[in-house]
Amino acid sequence: MKKSFYLLLVVLTTVFVSCSDDEGDGLKKEYLIATPITSDLRQFKEEAVAVSEPVPIQQSGKIYAYKEYVFVNDVNRGFHILDNSNPEAPENVAFIKLEGNNDISVKNDRLYADSYGDLVIFDIADIDNIPEAKRIENAIYQQYWCTVGFDVDWPEADYYDYGDFDAGSEAIIGWEVKTESLSEEEFGNRFGYPDIDLAWESFNADSSAGEPTVGQGGSLARFKIVGDYLYAVDWSSISIFDISDLDDPKVLDDVYTEAAIETIYNQGDVLFLGGPQGMYIYDISVPSKPAFVGEFVHGTACDPVVVDGDIAFVTLRGENSCGGTESGLYIVDLTHLASPELRKFYPLEGPYGLGFKDDKLFICDGAAGLKVYDKSDVDDLKLLNQFEDIVTYDVIPMENSLLMIGDKMLYQYEYLEGDIRLISTFDLN
User: What is the CB neighbour count within 10 angstroms for residue 24?
Assistant: First the structure.
């Protein structure tokens, strides 16, 4: 049965008070109380989708390539469409506003995207004339703030009073903040005890040749189309859709995973799922029912993975919210899928996505730039080139060129015999 996560009703009771130095049971203190301004959730979702002329990007997300187009996610706000028929001079042609969006995948001109935990389907056969999208509600993961609009700022307040807010039918489109004078007893009776220190930070923590029928995403993708099935991973499960009828996907039962999941990659009938605790392997020879095969567990870190034959390349980023593990590249031997083994570790600065083309391995090492390795001998990787002074996020190795997304910039490179060469940059601002 599909799950539907509701807005987490957390009692945020860190109190910033204005009061005298005298303490007493009846002393009134001034509290900032925020109450949500709501709208009908269905109407809110409908208004969260729109096709428009190009607009400046706000926060670079993931990239996806399909036919002559490149799609660039604007985190939680939608995606930009670039005509890349001339890689030396790509053209920004449209923006699809889709709030709550982070991932897409395309097959035969049908684009599947996430939005507030819903699956949204667009017909992109004619980019200049995209008809109204279809939405399947509660089909995939939902974050606990999924019904709060991403254009809505969280106000400073001592307490967020949700009252009778119904996350199943309402969306928060704003806040009303009032100052109320209450004694500690009145505050406790109404909201709970003000001495419990639940910090705001804990609530808002970072937690090929020819025209393909299926597009290509990067290593940070949570969506993956394999045959007639679309797989979407979240923190604890794989959502599965039968898309044999592209316009009418069938929502199948979730498969709950062994641990938290961040990314998905496939090689044939095997899924490789990257998570903060490790890499998890699932057999999809029965596509509707992924079956757990094995795992490679490492220290806590953000973890995308790509696979070439019996070798997995896993980047780990250990800073900030990702954990304390040393950042680097794990080379994992997949000879026995049920029991993968570490073969080699290479330290890196702070890697994000990665990809490969033939014997070239491309690693987005964050602020350290794009690194290009010769991977013909995985036990002795050779650094061929490093493109410094750029922020790098993810790559898509295409048949004839490499796409890379950085900080509001799209980079494209051509392959050389023992290197790559920059052919264009495109500013998404």
Answer: 9
The total number of residues written for the chain in this structure: 429
Number of domains in the chain: 1
Single pTM value for the model: 0.76
* Dist. CA 282–CA 178, nearest whole Å: 52
Q: What whole-number distance in Å separates Cα of residue 360 and Cα of residue 209? A: 18
End-to-end CA separation in angstroms for the chain: 42
Side-chain half-sphere exposure of 62, counting CA atoms within 13 A: 22
Residue 41 domain-assigned? yes
Contact predicate 287/261, CB 8 Å: no
Burial zone of 128 (CB within 10 Å; 0-12 exposed, 13-18 middle, 19+ buried): exposed
User: Is residue 243 assigned to a domain?
Assistant: no
Domain extent, residue 5, equals 1-217
pLDDT tens by residue, the chain, 429 residues: 444 333 333 333 333 333 334 444 458 888 888 887 765 556 555 555 788 899 999 998 999 999 999 999 999 899 999 999 999 999 999 999 998 899 999 999 999 999 988 999 999 999 999 999 999 988 985 443 444 554 555 677 777 777 776 655 666 766 788 888 888 777 777 766 443 333 333 233 333 334 458 999 999 999 999 999 999 998 789 999 999 999 999 999 999 997 889 999 999 999 999 988 889 999 999 999 999 999 998 766 667 999 999 999 999 987 655 566 688 999 999 999 999 999 999 999 989 999 999 999 999 999 999 999 999 999 999 999 999 999 999 999 999 999 999 999 999 999 999 999 999 999 998
Distance in angstroms (rounded) separating the CA atoms of residues 77 and 20: 45
Burial of 321 (0-12, 13-18, 19+ CB in 10 A): exposed
In a 10 Å sphere around its CB, with 0-12 CB exposed, 13-18 middle and 19+ buried, how is residue 156 labelled? exposed
Domain assignment present for residue 70? The answer is yes
Instruction: Give dist(CA 24, CA 52) in Å, integer.
Output: 59
List of residues 6+ apart from 413 with CB closer than 8 A: 401, 402, 404, 420, 421, 422, 423
Name residues whose C-beta falls within 8 Å of residue 21's C-beta, 6 or more positions apart in sequence: none
| Residue 358 counted as domain residue | no
